[in-house]
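Action item from last meeting closed. Structure (329 res):
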C-alpha cells in the first residue's frame, strides 16, 4: 500500500508553519526552507521556534558533509510536534536540494507520520519528482564562457540544442541566466541521462496556499520591520564577528545580503531595508509559480478568510484526500 505524504506549500509570509502546527495529522514536520537550514541565522529567516528545545541526535550517514542533526520539540502548539531540518549547517557550508531530499527521504522512511511544510519550491520539486543529471560533472570552462552572454543569446543557444527543455521552462526560469546555463551544460554533456528518485511508494497530497498578493506585500513589509526591531542587524554583526563572510552561502540569504552595503557604509539602513523588501516580494512572485498547475496540490485561497476557517479547510482537505488516496492504493 502506498503511503500518503501531506505537503503544505505557499509563498513567504503566507502562514504555512502556523497552519501546520494547528493540525493533528503529524508529529514530524519537515521544514522545506532553504534559508532556515543555516545555524545562527534566526531573526532574518523567521526561524520562530519559540521556547522549543533542540534534541541532538547522532548524524545519519546520508549525505557526505558535517551537519547539525536533531529536531526542535514544539511544546506549545495545539498538536506537539518535532520540527526537522532547521539549523542543519553553518553559514559557510553549501547545501543543495539533493542534500535536503536525501535527509527528508530518510525521515519519511523512518517515521510514518511526516508532513512537509515550506516555501522552497525547488526543494519540494526535487524530493517528489526526483532530479535529472544529479551527478553530472560541472563544466566550469563552459559556464565561464556562457556567463558573458546576454539573456537572449542564452535562450537562443538552449532553443537550438534542447528546444523541448526551453519550451517547458516557466517564465521565471527563462529569465534566469543561471538556470539557462545549467540547462545548456546538461544538454552538451554526453552522460546527461542519469536521474535520481528519492521517494518510493509515496503519494503526495499537497495544499497550496494562495494569499491575496497586495495583502501579502503589506505583510512582507510589516514582517521585515518586525525583524529589524527584534535585532536583525545585531544578528548580522555577530555573524561577521564569528568570521562568516558576505560571499558565504548563508550570508547570501535575503534579509542578510541586502545589508552588506550598510555595514560597509555604502548605503543607509533604510535603503538596504527597501532593497530587502523588494527582493522578498520578487521572491514571493517566483514562489507562486511552483505547483500552480500541479494536480497533486489543491489551492486554498486565503484572502478574506479568518485563520480558523483556513485551518478547518486544510484539515478537511488532508483528511478527505488521504482517506481517498489510501482507499485507492
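Sequence:
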Amino acid at each position: 500500500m502506498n503511503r500518503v505524504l501531506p505537503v503544505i506549500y505557499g509563498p513567504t509570509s503566507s502562514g504555512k508553519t502556523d497552519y501546520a502546527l494547528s493540525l493533528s495529522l503529524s508529529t514530524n514536520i519537515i521544514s522545506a526552507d532553504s534559508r532556515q537550514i543555516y545555524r545562527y541565522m534566526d531573526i532574518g529567516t523567521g526561524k520562530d521556534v519559540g521556547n522549543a528545545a533542540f534534541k541532538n541526535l547522532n548524524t545519519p550517514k546520508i549525505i557526505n558533509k558535517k551537519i547539525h542533526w536533531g529536531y526542535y520539540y514544539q511544546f506549545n502548539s495545539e498538536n506537539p510536534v518535532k520540527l526537522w531540518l532547521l539549523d542543519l549547517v553553518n553559514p559557510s557550508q553549501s547545501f543543495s536540494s539533493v542534500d535536503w531530499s536525501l535527509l527528508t527521504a530518510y525521515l519519511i522512511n523512518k517515521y510514518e507520520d511526516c508532513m512537509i511544510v515550506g516555501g522552497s519550491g525547488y526543494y519540494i520539486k526535487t524530493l517528489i519528482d526526483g532530479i535529472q543529471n544529479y551527478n553530472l560533472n560541472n563544466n566550469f570552462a563552459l559556464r565561464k564562457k556562457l556567463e558573458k552572454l546576454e539573456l537572449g543569446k542564452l535562450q537562443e543557444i538552449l532553443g537550438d540544442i534542447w528546444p523541448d527543455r526551453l519550451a517547458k521552462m516557466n517564465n521565471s526560469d527563462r529569465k534566469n541566466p543561471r538556470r539557462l546555463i545549467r540547462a545548456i551544460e546538461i544538454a552538451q554533456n554526453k552522460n546527461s541521462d542519469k536521474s535520481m528518485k528519492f521517494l518510493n511508494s509515496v503519494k503526495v497530497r499537497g495544499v497550496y496556499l494562495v494569499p491575496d498578493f497586495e495583502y501579502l506585500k503589506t505583510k512582507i513589509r510589516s514582517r521585515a520591520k518586525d525583524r529589524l526591531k527584534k535585532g536583525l542587524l545585531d544578528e548580522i554583526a555577530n555573524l561577521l564577528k564569528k568570521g562568516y563572510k558576505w560571499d558565504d552561502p548563508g550570508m547570501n540569504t535575503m534579509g542578510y545580503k541586502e545589508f552588506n552595503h550598510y555595514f560597509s557604509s555604502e548605503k543607509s539602513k533604510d535603503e538596504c531595508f527597501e532593497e530587502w523588501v523588494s527582493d522578498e516580494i520578487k521572491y514571493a512572485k517566483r514562489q507562486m509559480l511552483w505547483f500552480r498547475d500541479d494536480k497533486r496540490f489543491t489551492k486554498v485561497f486565503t484572502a478574506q478568510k479568518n485563520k480558523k476557517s483556513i485551518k478547518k479547510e486544510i484539515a478537511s482537505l488532508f483528511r478527505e484526500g488521504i482517506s481517498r488516496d489510501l482507499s485507492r492504493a
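Note appended to the action item: The chain is about 45% helix and 15% strand.
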